[in-house]
Amino acid sequence: MAKPIYILNGPNLNLLGKRQPEIYGHDTLDDVARSCAALAQDLGHVTELFQSNHEGEIIDTIHRARDLAAGIIINPAAYTHTSVAILDALNAFDGPVLEVHISNVHKRESFRHHSYVSLRADGVIAGFGVQGYELALRRMAVLLA
Ligand code: DQA
Fold this sequence. Notes:
The protein has helices spanning 21-24, 29-43, 55-68, 84-91, 131-144; strands at residues 5-9, 47-51, 71-75, 97-101, 123-126. By secondary structure, it is of the alpha/beta class. It is globular. The two termini are 15 Å apart. It binds 1,3,4-trihydroxy-5-OXO-cyclohexanecarboxylic acid.
């Protein structure tokens, strides 16, 4: 069976739907997991969604992806702007990596304009709301074809 596409989510995204809905919308991470699983099925893939508030757990999951995942879609949340360690872990992953941000980070505070993860990402989506995950999944299916 084909390897799954990992959808990794960083800190505070467990609160999606409740946290600053004026910025991040009302959909929850469970809604994202469901819509991505349904779309993945249409595209002939399987997704596994993870969320952690802990940098080391995200890194451990990326390490597991080296053997277990076909590609990684990642919203590193605040670690986007701080984590060389997540960048290093992604650099040790051979498959495609797509970076997603729900909000348009370039329209926000200047500290959100820089992304360490973008140095590795094959594509970046920002400002499309949670729809960005589905758009990334469609692109991932192309990259994996
Ligand atoms: C985010 C943007 C980040 O700057 C922020 O820290 C988040 C979410 C987004 O999806 O828009 O937690 O990655």
